[in-house]
Amino acid sequence: PDQIKLYRFAANIELFLQAMEHANEKNTLWLRRFQMIMMGMIFAAAGLMIIWHYAWIIRPLETLRDGVKTISQGRFGVQIDTDQISEFAQVNKGFNQMSSRLKTLYTDLEGQVARQTQDLARQNRDLTLLYQTTRDLHQTFTPQQAAEEFLKRTLPAVSAEAGSIRLWDNERKRTDIVASIGLPDDSDEPDTAPDTTALKHAVFPISYQEEELGVLNLYFSDDLKPDNNDNELLRTLSGQLGVSIVN
Question: Which of 77, 96, 149, 232 has minimal CB crowding within 10 Å?
Answer without folding.
Answer: 232
